[in-house]
Specification:
The protein is α+β, with helices and mostly antiparallel strands. The chain contains twelve helices and 30 strands. Strands 1, 5, 6, 7, 9, 10, 11, 12 and 13 form a nine-stranded mixed sheet that branches. The chain has a four-stranded mixed sheet with strand order 14-19-20-22. A hairpin with a 6-residue loop joins strand 3 and strand 4.
Length: about 625
């Protein structure tokens, strides 16, 4: 017990993060275009929560140490309520309930687009993921209260597996109170960060992860952006691409796994994940001046720490690499204060599914995970439902743990739990099958570095395709996941169907080709961003080349925008054809001046009749330049 209490005192020091770091950097002189100086402010806000809020991150929900799940159903509204409640038999052990704070952390960066001042707001929020139904509200509030344009706001979920639920997934229910509190913390952090800013230099270094801490073929980049005045670090953010899983509180404090407390483990601690602990440790480091530090989650779909890697060692390694990078002035690149941002809608389809095939995949996945479990025979009467059985939206599977005390604690999970969860997930998805949903894609250019924001739990294969196809170069392009929205697991077809619940339930609800379509749409945005910044280059730089940009949104319904670049004044002809090569519509046939132009196709032919769903091609001729691209209309 004394050992537990001494560790809790260490943990209490982290609580001060919400107090000591909830400020912005002081105002200073005004930076000038191309001076290389930015104005930057940063702030941290704790998200209000309590121990009654269940944690999410696995197939089942769970409670902090000493608490157990309790369900109720309102007799009038039929709403399912789920909360954690203290369990006296567990509480007597005095186990800790968290190893770090659940925060929203914002950095506001002011630079220039041409000769116009531009502000950018980057926010990291400690949640597994959160949808645009909340993040759009947060971004709009930041625009209304701070004046930063909606398109210039990036909100990234850290993918911690130790926070309350901000969106339905598996057997976890959205906790509306927590999600609303997260929005408030996001907005308040942005307001504080914007309130006072410091003139700083921006330095960048890609401190490669050469320790191979992740399993599989993952993105090894560890880019670090730091904002400095002379030798003082005011704030920084970094990107890395491994699942942000929880870690044991005891491992962090003592670097010791031999404690004799049996049940206190990572799954039952509220936690910002191991990346969150890295940022909170750095923010409390007096040798660094206690800068505000932001972690942005990269393309970590399917990527976890290697089995032989202890999280405590990974945390210490990451902290050392970041501290070493701060000292490395020779490898650091000083960024110009040019900022450019493009944010575009991205349409995707909710996947169709075959009931028999889903059952087959589920059966194979269960056999692999639990080869001796009789639930593999799928007797539906074996599992228990909670809620209203005739309303799938209000039904959950029984994940209430029971425990016995036989020489220690032994916890028992209900039988046939996973088959129940994925069947219920299908019931929830069934009304949405084949529907078109809208999300966001975003690209931000700071100096010569480009950050791409994708909304899915993006797999590294797609991130590599984006990096390799980027006009800014793979070494200058970095891909984020779970940003501005959540559209589920996004693997490519190299991932075996059913593996880690892929293409099953609400874990991956987007259609099969969504990831590939996202890559193409993202590359088109990057081309557009490259062209838009090239147009503003001073005289003497290479001229703008003719170019056809991918339409957006794509897929679309009912209309889409097509942009193209003209090198010199001349005639432009832009036409749309069907898959048989028949001319459908002539959108442009006239002289155009130098620059980037756009035209909207409303999904109608030259005779003003609405065309049917399907694939169409659009072709452009500008002088001797000819180019063609494909688009998909889904009605």
């Amino acid at each position: 017990m004394k050992k537990v209490q001494s560790q809790i005192y260490v943990l209490m020091f982290r609580v001060f993060i919400c107090i000591t770091m909830s400020f912005s950097l002081p105002f200073n002189t005004i930076a000038q275009p191309n001076s290389g100086k930015f104005k930057v402010g940063a702030a941290v806000q704790c998200i209000q929560l309590d121990d009654s809020m269940p944690l999410t991150g696995g197939v089942a929900q769970r409670c902090v140490n000493g608490w157990l799940l309790k369900y109720t159903v309102d007799s009038e509204t039929n709403e399912v309520a789920l909360k954690c409640a203290p369990e006296p038999k567990l509480g007597e052990y005095g186990w800790p309930t968290e190893n770090g704070k659940i925060n929203a952390t914002a950095i506001v960066i002011q630079g220039y687009t041409g000769d116009q001042e531009t502000k950018l707001c980057i926010v990291a929020v400690d949640v597994l993921f959160i949808g645009r139904e909340y993040l759009d509200i947060a971004a709009q509030r930041i625009e209304d209260e701070v004046g930063i344009p909606f398109d210039n706001i990036l909100i990234n979920a850290s993918h911690t597996h130790g926070a309350p639920c901000a969106r339905d997934v598996h057997n976890s229910i959205l906790n509306e109170e927590f999600a609303e509190n997260a929005v408030d913390a996001i907005v308040n952090a942005a307001i504080l960060a914007n309130a006072h800013q410091k003139e700083v230099d921006a330095l960048f270094v890609d401190n490669l992860d050469d320790e191979e801490i992740g399993g599989g073929d993952y993105i090894r980049d560890l880019p670090l952006f730091r904002f400095m005045s002379n030798t003082e670090v005011y704030s920084m953010f970094f990107i890395h691409s491994i699942h942000n899983n929880n870690t044991s509180y005891y491992n962090i404090v003592n670097q010791d796994t031999s404690l004799d407390v049996k049940y206190s483990n990572a799954n039952n601690l509220r936690s910002p994940g191991f990346y969150g602990l890295v940022t909170q440790d750095l923010m409390l480091d007096p040798q660094l001046g206690k800068p505000i530090v932001v972690y942005l989650s990269g393309a970590a779909g399917g990527v976890y720490l290697k089995g032989d890697r202890k999280t405590v060692n990974v945390i210490l390694m990451l902290e050392k690499k970041i501290k070493d990078a701060l000292k490395d002035t020779l490898s650091s690149q000083r960024l110009s204060n040019e900022i450019a941002v493009i944010k575009r809608p991205f349409n995707y389809k909710i996947r169709e599914f075959d009931e028999e095939q889903e059952e087959t995949w589920l059966h194979e996945a269960m056999l692999q995970a639990y080869p001796n479990d009789t639930c593999n025979n799928y007797p539906r009467e074996e599992y228990e439902l909670l809620g209203i059985p005739n309303d799938p939206s209000k039904v959950l599977c029984n994940d209430l743990l029971t425990f016995e005390q036989v020489g220690g604690l032994k916890f028992v999970k209900p039988r046939c739990f996973e088959p129940c969860v994925f069947r219920i997930s299908r019931e929830r998805l069934r009304p949405l099958r084949g529907t078109i949903q809208e999300s966001w894609l975003q690209a931000i250019k700071i100096g010569d570095i480009c950050i791409v924001a994708t909304p899915g739990e993006t797999f590294p294969q797609f991130a590599k395709q984006i990096k390799d196809g980027s006009p800014f170069g793979a070494e200058n392009t970095f891909v984020l996941a779970l940003t501005n929205d959540h559209i589920g697991y996004l693997p490519d077809e190299s991932v075996e169907l059913g593996t880690y619940w892929t293409w099953m339930g609400t874990h991956s609800f987007a259609d099969f080709q969504t990831g590939e379509e996202m890559v193409q749409a993202t590359l088109s945005i990057l081309d557009e961003l490259a062209l838009s910044t090239a147009v503003k280059e001073p005289v003497g730089k290479p001229p703008l080349a003719p170019h056809l940009i991918q339409n957006y949104p794509n897929p679309f319904n009912p209309s889409t925008t097509i942009e193209y670049a003209v090198e010199k004044t001349g005639r432009v002809r832009l036409e749309i054809y069907d898959t048989l090569g028949k001319l459908v519509r002539t959108l442009v046939d006239e002289e155009k001046g130098i620059g980037i132009h756009s035209v909207v196709w409303d999904g109608k032919a030259d005779d003003n009749k609405t065309v049917s769903s399907g694939t169409y091609f659009y072709s452009i001729r500008i002088g001797n330049f000819v180019s063609e691209k494909k688009m998909l209309l889904l009605r």
